[in-house]
Every structure is written in C-alpha cells, then in structure tokens.
Amino acid sequence: MMKNKLFWKIIFALFTLIFIVLILRSPEDSWICTESGWIEHGKPNATKPTISCGSKEKKVEKYLKENISDISPQKEVLGGKFYIIKIDWL
C-alpha cells in the first residue's frame, strides 16, 4: 500500500515537472498588433513588421468575430456560442 502511494506521488511530481518545463520553454517573444500599432511582447528575434498594423487587421478581426460560428469546422454544442477574445497578429 505504501509503495503504491509513493509510486503515484513520483508520477505526479514527474508530470508536474514536465508541465513546468514545457510552459517555460513556450515561445512568448513576438510582435503584437494593437490599436496603437506594433508592440513588442517579450524580446522577439524578428524585426518589427513592416506591414501596416490597423485597418486591414481590424477588418479581418471584425469579420472573424462576426462569422466565427460559420467559419469553424467544429459546430457549437449544447446551445453554446463561439466567440473570439483576442487575436495576436504575428
């Protein structure tokens, strides 16, 4: 019985460690398009994008927000409704 508890504690610790390593290694360095223009998120290796940030992106965002239910290959279930919270332009 005691060995079984120890086994599960080791498995839990191992999965927790793997999860933390994956989170810390995830890429967070990019350029994000905001209403005020391109802003750095972290320390991106790429140079600042040269395409304009604003009008075209806002039109695409508006279209996606209004039509996400039709665009998505997955259909809503149980009366749910898709919605977009945030779009990060890379």
Can you characterise this structure?
By secondary structure, this protein is mainly alpha-helical. It has a domain at 28-71. The protein has two helices and two strands. It has helices spanning 2-25, 55-71; strands spanning 30-34, 37-41. It has a two-stranded antiparallel ribbon with strand order 1-2. It is flat and about 65 Å long. The chain starts with a helix and ends in a 19-residue tail after the last helix.
If you compute it from the alpha carbons, what radius of gyration comes out, rounded to the nearest whole angstrom?
A: 21 Å
Shape: flat
Strand residues, percent? 5-15%
Average pLDDT, rounded to a whole number, is: 80
Count the DSSP helices.
2
Percent in helix: 40-55%
Low-confidence stretches: none
User: Termini separation (Å)?
Assistant: 52 Å
Structural class: mainly alpha
Order of helices and strands: HEEH
| Total beta-strand segments | 2
Biggest sheet strand order reads 1-2
Q: Quick one: biggest sheet?
A: 2 strands, antiparallel
Describe the secondary structure blueprint for this structure.
Elements: H1 2-25, E1 30-34, E2 37-41, H2 55-71
